[in-house]
């Protein structure tokens, strides 16, 4: 490393170098990354320094680390892009990108809606609500955790197998065709249960999309929260074209 590089922490310099190799095409998607031992020898640093650098590159979504006999570190393919303005759920869009997504239902229970939830769903306090939690897995790795809320009065016989379907399909089959969807997107730290489900660290950020779905008469039929690993997708918002664009 040069003298100027040594002014920065070594793990940041190494992360920059590894990122450059990926962005330049020296390392292609699917290529096996050098082992920790090889990186220690190449950069002449301690193994912990190499691990810090790999952590950074992984959080940026550039590499995957897999365990087991066929495991190792691999250059990650460009993640699929989700459109926040498409009106389709993340699950539906991921499948449209060709990902083989399996849905593992973790729980389906009836809860008494607390005040804030009752207000969001347009029901009375303590009215029963279905709360369904699931994890979505692609190629053996969890990429998204979801929490779906549906008033019990609208779907009294909801079953676990129903939850494997995209939300729009499920609601249509329940006779609740949605006509309005409002999404919100935020970056947040993973909750305790999300850390376990998604395999992310306590301080690692996640993308959280909350979708409120209504019928034509304004009845709220569902609220869906989708929490994604930050390295699993990118998100875009499509805006209408302005005939006289401005930088203001």
TrEMBL record:
Residues 8-78 form the HTH gntR-type domain. One of its GO terms (biological process) is negative regulation of DNA-templated transcription. Coiled coil: none annotated. InterPro entries: Bact_HTH_transcr_reg, Chorismate_lyase_/UTRA_dom_sf, Tscrpt_reg_HTH_GntR, UTRA, WH-like_DNA-bd_sf, WH_DNA-bd_sf. SUPFAM superfamilies: Chorismate lyase-like, Winged helix' DNA-binding domain. GO terms for molecular function: DNA binding; DNA-binding transcription factor activity. This is HTH-type transcriptional regulator.
């Amino acid at each position: 490393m040069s003298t100027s590089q040594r002014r920065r922490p070594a793990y940041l310099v190494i992360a920059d170098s590894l990122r450059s190799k990926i962005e330049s095409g020296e390392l292609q998607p699917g290529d096996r990354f050098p082992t920790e031992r090889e990186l220690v020898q190449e950069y002449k640093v301690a193994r912990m320094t190499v691990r810090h650098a790999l952590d950074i590159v992984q959080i940026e979504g550039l590499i995957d680390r897999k365990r087991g006999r066929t495991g190792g570190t691999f250059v990650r393919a460009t993640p699929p892009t989700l459109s926040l303005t498409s009106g389709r759920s993340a699950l539906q869009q991921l499948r449209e990108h060709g990902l083989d997504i399996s849905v593992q239902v973790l729980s389906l229970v009836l809860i008494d809606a607390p005040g804030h939830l009752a207000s969001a769903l347009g029901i009375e306090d303590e009215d029963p609500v279905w709360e369904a939690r699931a994890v979505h897995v692609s190629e053996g790795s969890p990429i998204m955790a979801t929490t779906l809320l549906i008033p019990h009065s609208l779907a009294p016989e909801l079953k676990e197998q129903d939850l494997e379907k995209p939300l729009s399909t499920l609601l249509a089959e329940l006779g609740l065709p949605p006509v309005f969807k409002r999404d919100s997107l935020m970056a947040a730290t993973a909750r305790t249960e999300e850390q376990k489900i998604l395999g992310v660290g306590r301080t690692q950020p996640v993308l959280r999309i909350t979708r409120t779905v209504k019928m034509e008469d304004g009845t709220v039929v569902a609220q869906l929260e989708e929490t994604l690993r930050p390295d699993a997708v990118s998100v875009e918002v499509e805006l209408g074209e302005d005939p006289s664009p401005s930088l203001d």
